[in-house]
Amino acid sequence: MKNKNVYDKKSSHDAPITDTEKQVLDLVVKGFSGKEMADKLFVSEATIKFHLNTIRKKKGF
Predict the structure, then answer these.
(1) pTM (two decimals)
(2) Which GO terms describe its molecular function (predicted)?
(3) pLDDT band of 8, cuts 50, 70, 90
(4) What is the b/e burial string over 12-23, where b = at least 16 CB atoms within 10 angstroms of the residue's CB?
């Protein structure tokens, strides 16, 4: 049996950005507030915060 090592797992930094996360990033760059992004994408502000946190984790920020 091969020993599993935590370092064998892919880091979240390797995870690709989803289409929705790209939409959120595009709106961030355009200067939209969290509420404005939520309204535009028909989601809650909490969902926008979730996407932003996921992006930060994926990119190591």
Answers:
(1) 0.76
(2) DNA binding
(3) very low
(4) eeeeeeeeebee
- Structural domains in the chain, sorted by start: 16-59 (1.10.10.10)
Q: Is 13 in a helix, a strand, or coil?
A: helix
Residue 48's nearest CA partner among 40, 37, 59 is 37
Residues 31 and 3: beta-carbon distance below 8 Å: no
Give tens-digit pLDDT for 11-30.
Answer: 566 789 999 999 999 999 99
pLDDT over threshold 60, residue 6: no
Most distant CA pair in the chain, distance: 53
